[in-house]
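> call design_seq(struct)
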């Protein structure tokens, strides 16, 4: 499998430029088609006890005018950026629920790139857990980009969080094109007890047959949480990407995220590729 189409979610915030540079770099690296997507929730939020029907209609009209104006600004930025960077690109603007709409468009891409929603300023355009929701709901890998920092190098030095689960297997397979082009790949297993065999040895052998040379590391998880251990190791190894399974499920409109995934998304300092 190769990466031939990348979906980039743009919410109109100041971090759009950072995510675009990252996405454009990957598009150039894999000669991929880059799709920019902006989604607007078509319904204005009105507090209880607010204006009557006529007042709400006027608010709705003003809201949609502002949202369409914002969409035009995002489109123009994307057009300007792609004229400088991307060989093949496409712009999409649509109205709908942000979670459902981004997930729907992501199903027809090889990789989706989405910003990490900061918990203190999560909004309808960039919900806090959007990255994981799309990974779980769309069935494609999602590259979550932190809400702080810049990333001149992505996917050159990779840390793979490995526990042998279905989700971690899926993450390894979904990230194979990036792993194959990386300069260094470390398979990290965080174990509470001493294992009888070296964790990660089997997947390392499998990756070697795909031309990916890896280093296998095992660390104890007794003295720190799994998420803290992963992030500390990522800093120690100076990696520029973490690959891990997204744990959780989405049923109807309820979304339940696994503890490690939730913690990593809240504290990550480098892009994280999530796969379910």
């Amino acid at each position: 499998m190769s990466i031939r189409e990348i979906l980039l979610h743009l919410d109109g915030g100041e971090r759009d430029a950072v995510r675009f540079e990252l996405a454009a770099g990957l598009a150039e690296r894999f000669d991929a088609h880059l799709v920019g997507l902006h989604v607007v929730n078509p319904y204005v939020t009105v507090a209880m006890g607010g204006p009557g029907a006529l007042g709400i209609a006027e608010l709705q009209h003003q809201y949609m005018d502002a949202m369409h104006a914002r969409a035009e600004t995002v489109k123009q930025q994307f057009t300007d950026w792609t004229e400088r960077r991307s060989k093949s690109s496409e712009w999409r603007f649509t109205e709908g629920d942000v979670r459902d709409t981004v997930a729907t468009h992501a199903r027809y891409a090889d990789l989706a790139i989405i910003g990490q929603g900061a918990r203190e300023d999560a909004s309808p355009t960039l919900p806090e857990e959007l990255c994981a929701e799309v990974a779980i709901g769309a069935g494609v890998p999602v590259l979550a980009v932190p809400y702080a920092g810049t990333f001149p190098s992505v996917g050159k030095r990779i840390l793979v969080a490995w526990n042998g689960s279905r989700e971690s297997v899926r993450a390894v397979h979904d990230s194979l094109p990036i792993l194959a082009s990386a300069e260094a790949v470390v398979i990290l297993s965080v174990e509470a007890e001493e294992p009888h065999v070296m964790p990660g040895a089997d997947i390392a052998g499998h990756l070697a047959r795909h031309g990916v040379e890896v280093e296998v590391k095992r660390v104890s998880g007794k003295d720190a949480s799994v998420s803290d251990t992963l992030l500390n190791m990522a800093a120690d190894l100076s990696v520029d990407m973490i690959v891990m399974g997204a744990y959780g499920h989405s049923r109807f409109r309820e979304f339940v995220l696994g503890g490690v995934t939730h913690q990593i998304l809240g504290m990550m300092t480098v892009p994280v590729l999530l796969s379910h």
